[in-house]
Every structure is written in C-alpha cells, then in structure tokens.
Design a protein that fits this description.
about 270 residues; mainly alpha
Length: about 270
C-alpha cells in the first residue's frame, strides 16, 4: 500500500467514526450530542484538513525508520503544526486533537515498518512502543506542575490517558476492540461498529468523561456500556439513542473512546492491505 493510500484510509476512518450513528454524547450524523460548538459537517472538514500532516507523519517514519525516538520527536513538531491547521479550519474548536496525536504515532510507525518491510500489525505496534517508551514517566509521573488536559487528568485521577495507551501498544484496541470487530463480521457494519464503541466505553478511563463529570461519570459510563453490551446487538441502536439523551442531559461525551474507535477502524482497514 502506497503512502497516499494509507493516509486516505486514516482520513476515511476519522470520517466513519464521525458518521457512525447513534453515539451517546458525541457528534454524529443525527445530532451534536453534548456539544454546542461543533457538528457533523465541522468534523468532516476537520478530518480532511489533516491530509498533508498525515503524509508528513508517514514520511518521517519511512525516512528515519532506524531511529524510533528521533521519529517521535520529529512528529511532535509536525503534530503542533497539524493542530494549528485544525484550529484554523474549525475556527478554534478542538475536534481531533487527541486523534491527531494517536494517528501521528501510528502513521509514522507504518512508514517506518514499510521502509523495513515489516508491515504486519504486530510489527507496527512494536514500533509504536519503541517510539513512546518512557513517555508517561517523562511527561506525566515526573511532572511538578500540570498544564495540559492530559496532565491535569493524571494529577487529579492518576489516569495515564492516551499517552499510556500508546506507550503500552494500544491494549484496549488490540485486546478488546479489534478482536470484537473480527469476531462479529456476521453482523451488519453499523452494529459491529457500535459494539466496538461500547467495548471501548466499558473499559476506557476516558479523560473527556472525567473532565466533564469526574469519577462518578466515568463509573456511570462504563456501567451503561457494559449493560448495553449484554443486550442483543440488534438492540444497540435503540439503547444508544436513549443513552444519548441521558448523556446530553449530563453533558457527557466519551471523546477518548471515539478516538480509539477511529483507530480500531483504521487498523481493521489496513491489516489486510499493507
């Protein structure tokens, strides 16, 4: 698979995540969830604005495959520029900041692995872990002051967030979401994807939920996701429509799980194509 094909699949995954409906508290094709500053059209514009940055992530990995730490340092700079492009596109709304970080790491790892001709998903995840080894120690546990959203979540709740998920090789995706997606290929695509989102919500210590409602909201979110997962998949849509109304009333939005859903869809697309 060529670079532009990989990047197109990444953008497609972001769009598929946004389009999946219904999602509790999240922007989808039906409504804006718990958000007043963004809608489905804005999410599409945001996803499309990352094309050049996504290509740059891949290219850095491809050109410097032998030095994963160097690659990671380079893509952090690219990531800041990508973030600025996103904010210009959305007029200051944070639509994909977390996804930008995750996809940046993964796309650079894919570039590196393609340069080394090791293009299976296990090799890609191993490269991600090599790039980010020690990240949480460096950027979270050793800090004396806390400025970013992720840093505050660690300080308040001890949550490692997306940094921990990346450093440990995306365990929620590799051990929960992706196996569910593969095991349920007999289901209609939307039911499968809603099931993936529920699996992620049930296990993810979602920093977006914590920010909006604290530990009580996180416990509620995980409990509700587990409850719905015990229903037949044909009932997911109705249950999530009801949960969406409740999340909107509580101002909750599982944005971290949505980002992991997009990555899961991306991994599923590329696993047989690389």
């Amino acid at each position: 698979m060529m670079m532009h094909e990989v990047v197109n699949q990444a953008i497609k995954a972001l769009i598929l995540e946004a389009a999946l409906t219904p999602k509790p508290g999240l922007v989808d094709a039906a409504d804006n969830g718990a958000h007043t500053d963004m809608d489905f059209e804005l999410f599409i514009d945001s996803a499309l604005c990352f094309k050049e940055s996504f290509e740059a992530y891949y290219q850095v990995g491809f050109e410097h495959a032998s030095n994963p730490k160097y690659v990671f340092n380079k893509i952090r700079v690219i990531g800041l520029n990508a973030e600025e492009t996103m904010f210009r596109t959305t007029k200051g709304v944070n639509t994909h900041k977390g996804a930008n970080f995750s996809f940046g790491v993964v796309l650079s790892a894919i570039g590196a692995c393609q340069a080394q001709q090791n293009t299976d998903l296990v090799s890609i995840i191993a490269y991600v872990m090599a790039m980010t080894k020690g990240l949480t120690e460096k950027e979270l546990t050793s800090l004396k002051s806390y400025q970013t959203h992720g840093e505050h979540m660690y300080h308040q709740f001890g949550i490692l967030g997306i940094r921990g998920e990346v450093e440990h090789g995306f365990p929620l995706i590799m051990h929960e979401a992706l196996p569910y997606l593969k095991k349920n290929k007999h289901l209609p695509p939307r039911q499968r994807q809603l099931g993936v989102l529920l699996h992620l919500m049930a296990k993810n210590d979602d920093s977006n939920i914590l920010k909006r409602g604290g530990m009580e909201a996180l416990s509620y979110t995980q409990h509700e996701a587990k409850r719905i997962l015990n229903r037949p998949p044909a009932q997911f849509e109705h249950e999530l429509e009801v949960l969406n109304r409740e999340f909107k009333s509580r101002n909750l939005s599982p944005g971290g799980s949505a980002d992991l859903l997009a990555l899961t869809l991306f991994f599923d697309m590329i696993e047989t194509s690389l």
